[in-house]
Design a protein that fits this description.
The chain has about 475 residues and is of the alpha/beta class. The chain is built from 14 helices and 21 strands. It folds into three domains: about 140 residues, FAD/NAD(P)-binding domain (3-Layer(bba) Sandwich), CATH 3.50.50; about 100 residues, FAD/NAD(P)-binding domain, CATH 3.50.50.60; about 120 residues, FAD/NAD-linked reductase, C-terminal dimerisation domain (Enolase-like, domain 1), CATH 3.30.390.
């Protein structure tokens, strides 16, 4: 059968763009369908604007603490319009790379409009029906706005529109203590907002190693943030000129006043209007598309990648899954997704980075051999950088191979890649003692950990032989 396209991609976010660019670059005839902005969440309301915003906010924190370093500077406030212009400026700088014009120059047919899958190899879009040998769904996710009493009737923000603020919030309440809530909450706190974070979980960073939550809560509270953990959000209510969130904990109600409300209570799959059921594409109970390890859906000619199928909602995972799809449908290689070394970073100050197993998940799987915990206050560069609060935690299997790592530190996101390589290559934790790290750098903590792991591995008889040899 002759098709209009070899591959039709629905969604021009990170996953869809990676798929379309990769396929077109390999000579495939590709259609890319997008009903909203090119670049998706990451460019327009996610990674790019949030990290641009945090750069400004953390700069404010540095100014406030400048006297610590002998610098006479004062923080006189925030020009939110100028700050948000800077955020939008970064988006515009990156925008051409994700633009329709660029993808057309790559040979991709860019179609604007809602896509509806009408069959295993057909899509209706922009008033016409097109056929494709393979369809790739990459429509992403969006912020959940749950049916909390009074919420829909109250002005609120999500990550999609929070970067349109022209005035710094005086009292910001954030519903949700996940990465988005914590990153933006700390950012606004650094800029001068009074910030309160509400979450039903009893502690922060529940998906990270146990040492992370308590440390980061302590740091963020010292910044001035307030936390209401283990709390249930009951309602949003107005009383005269004031608006409040009513929360309940241990049978006691608390009212938190706000002038700005940010909803960061998780994400939902974007599937409305796609016609998944008619195309035979199965979803789980949360609405996410179910795929096998080859990113193939229950309909063999239809694949999915990125947030729409998970299991990790990261831009770097979208690109990785796109590569898996291309290897399967273009090169016919039986490529399968491997999530054993997936890094993630919460871009707080300090950053929290993780890859592989935590101590608890390794124990649950019966893989845990030993752990190593080293603190940055032992590292010279960390002392010069005033970055001594955090740590490096290495989780090992019974053969002393690295199977997981957590780092808390200002440069954690830049450092976690070493562990990702170690997990992928099944490297032993003592490997780094043989590496030459430039001095002074915070990465030397890997060498420190390796040396200490090697020392702990020495049995008394080994030490006796070493003494005899010396």
């Amino acid at each position: 059968m002759k098709y209009d396209y070899q591959i039709a991609v629905i969604g021009a976010g990170s996953a869809g763009l990676s798929t379309a660019a990769g396929a077109a670059g390999l000579g495939a005839k590709v259609a890319l369908i997008e009903q909203d902005k090119m670049g998706g969440e990451c460019l327009n309301s996610g990674c790019v604007p949030s990290k641009s915003f945090l750069r400004c906010a953390h700069q404010a924190a540095e100014i406030k603490n400048s006297s610590k370093y002998g610098i006479l500077a004062s923080f006189e406030g925030v020009d939110m319009k100028a700050l948000m212009q800077r955020v939008q400026g970064v988006i515009r700088e990156i925008e051409p790379h994700d633009s329709a014009q660029r993808f057309k120059s790559l040979g991709v047919d860019v179609i604007s409009g809602q896509a509806q899958i009408t069959g295993p190899n057909s899509i209706k879009a922009d008033g016409r029906e097109i056929s494709a040998k393979y369809i790739v769904i990459a429509t992403g996710s969006e912020a959940i706005v749950p049916p909390i009493k009074g919420l829909l009737e109250t002005k609120h923000y999500t990550n999609r529109d929070i970067f349109s603020l022209e005035k710094l919030p005086e009292k910001l309440v954030i519903l949700g203590g996940g990465p988005i809530g914590l990153e933006l909450g700390q950012g606004f706190c650094h800029l001068g907002s009074k910030v309160a974070v509400i979450d039903m979980a009893p502690k922060l960073f529940t998906k990270d190693d146990r040492e992370v939550g308590a440390l980061m809560e302590k740091i963020m509270r010292s910044d001035g943030m307030e936390f209401y953990l283990g709390a249930t959000i009951v309602e949003i209510r107005k009383d005269g000129e004031s608006t409040f969130v009513r929360i309940s904990k241990d049978g006691k109600d608390t009212y938190l006043e706000f002038d700005t409300l940010l909803v960061a209570l998780g994400r939902a799959a974007v599937t409305d209007g796609l016609g998944l059921a008619d195309a035979g594409v199965a979803t789980d109970k949360r609405g996410y598309i179910i795929t096998n390890k080859r990113q193939q859906t229950s309909t063999p000619s239809i694949y999915a990648c990125g947030d729409i199928c998970g299991p990790y909602q990261f831009t770097h995972m979208a690109g990785y899954q796109a590569g898996i799809i291309l290897r399967n449908i273009i090169f016919k290689l039986p490529a399968k997704a491997n999530y054993s070394a997936v890094p993630w970073v919460t871009y707080a100050m300090p950053e929290v980075a993780h890859v592989g197993y935590t101590e608890d998940t390794a124990r649950e799987k019966g893989l845990l051999g030993d752990i190593s915990l080293e603190y940055f206050n032992e590292i010279d560069r960390s002392k010069t950088e005033d970055d001594t609060a955090g740590f490096l935690k290495i989780v090992m299997d019974k053969k002393k191979r690295i199977i997981g790592t957590t780092i808390v530190g200002k440069k954690a996101g830049e450092m976690i890649g070493l562990s990702a390589i170690a997990i992928k290559k099944k490297i032993k934790a003592t490997y780094f003692m043989n590496m030459i790290f430039p001095y002074p750098t915070e990465s030397e903590i890997y060498a420190l950990a390796s040396r200490n792991i090697a020392k702990q591995s020495l049995k008394p008889w080994m030490k006796k032989i070493i003494r005899m040899l010396i």
